[in-house]
Design goal:
Strand content: under 5%
Oligomer: single chain
Order of helices and strands: HHHEEHHHHHHEHHHH
Structural class: mainly alpha
């Protein structure tokens, strides 16, 4: 199939032209704004915060841009931002604990030395845990979304066919694919897109950008909804377990768990679908079906494993 706009020959089964971005096929699901393919001539990558903003309000445009220069994808920065917000989440939790004494010595709320060390250590602990947690969480979820896409569109085979060659081989392949040089060879973005490596995890980590916004909302919920309690730290800096039991019995945790479940079932499958379809140049509908199925299964498993849920069962 030759592209009616630029005259080049994109890889078989393509849904958009790899050279100029012209849409070659259209599915009904793409009539919805969130799934509409973005069709413009690409010139230069957008700024980081612009990408971050678009990944939330217009992921189709964001992934269209990211896909043209995947080696500078902000996926790992998004992972880092989520870890930082998890540190704020821990800080919000421990802000409800007021230390009244340490080793039977009274502590004033205005004691900057104690309060700063207490809050700083809380943030660092949760941030360090968040780094490990989100790295594993994002990697495992992306792995399962890719597995689902393998069943629906043969994702791995498609990206290996598009990006699995070395740069020198890719340049020769481009000449073979296009045959005679098109008069519309000014579309350099398509050549750049095909010469790069897939960088699939780095790109698909961008699909978890909604967790940044949701994480900030969860911090506010914790700050507003959690009860305040006083604690007396004994020898060994031990905190009575009754304090944590009272905190985790707060109904706010159920709200947080429900939010996570809705995001995993509703929002993440959308962003992951767009990321996968841009990377593989494939069907939107078929990827979305597999992504919703994977997101639903993961959400149910994670929801049932929550200690706050188990306490109600």
């Amino acid at each position: 199939m030759r592209c009616p706009r630029c005259g080049n020959t994109p890889p078989k089964d393509s849904y958009v032209c790899s050279f100029c971005g012209k849409r070659l096929r259209q599915e009904r699901i793409e009539n919805f704004f969130i799934f509409q393919r973005f069709e413009e001539e690409w010139n230069a990558p957008l700024g980081f915060f612009t990408k971050l903003y678009l990944l939330i309000i217009n992921p189709a445009k964001a992934f269209w841009d990211i896909n043209h220069k995947r080696d500078s994808s902000p996926g790992f920065l998004i992972f880092l931002f989520n870890a930082l917000i998890y540190g704020l989440f821990g800080l919000a939790i421990f802000s409800h604990f007021q230390i009244t004494s340490i080793h039977d010595n009274p502590v004033s709320p205005l004691d900057i030395t104690v309060t700063f060390g207490y809050y700083f250590s809380s943030f660092i602990s949760f941030f360090a845990f968040g780094l490990l947690y989100y790295l594993l969480f994002f990697w495992i979820l992306t792995y399962f979304f890719i597995k689902g896409a393998n069943y629906s569109i043969g994702f791995t085979e498609r990206i290996e066919e598009r990006f699995g060659k070395k740069v020198e081989e890719a340049e020769e392949s481009l000449t073979t694919q296009t045959g005679a040089t098109s008069i519309f060879s000014i579309y350099k973005a398509g050549t750049l897109l095909q010469k790069q490596e897939a960088n699939k995890y780095k790109m698909l980590f961008c699909a978890f950008t909604p967790f940044i916004l949701i994480g900030l909302i969860k911090v506010l919920i914790v700050l507003i909804g959690m009860p305040n309690t006083t604690i007396a730290i004994t020898s060994g800096f031990e905190i009575p377990t009754s304090v944590f039991n009272a905190m985790f019995q707060s109904p706010s945790w159920i709200v947080l768990d429900i939010i996570d479940t809705i995001v995993l079932i509703g929002w993440i499958p959308i962003t992951m679908t767009i990321g996968i379809r841009e990377l593989a140049n494939s069907s939107t509908f078929r990827v979305y079906v597999s992504s919703v199925a994977i997101g639903t299964i993961c959400a149910i498993v994670l929801f049932l494993l929550k200690p706050t849920i188990q306490g109600l069962m």
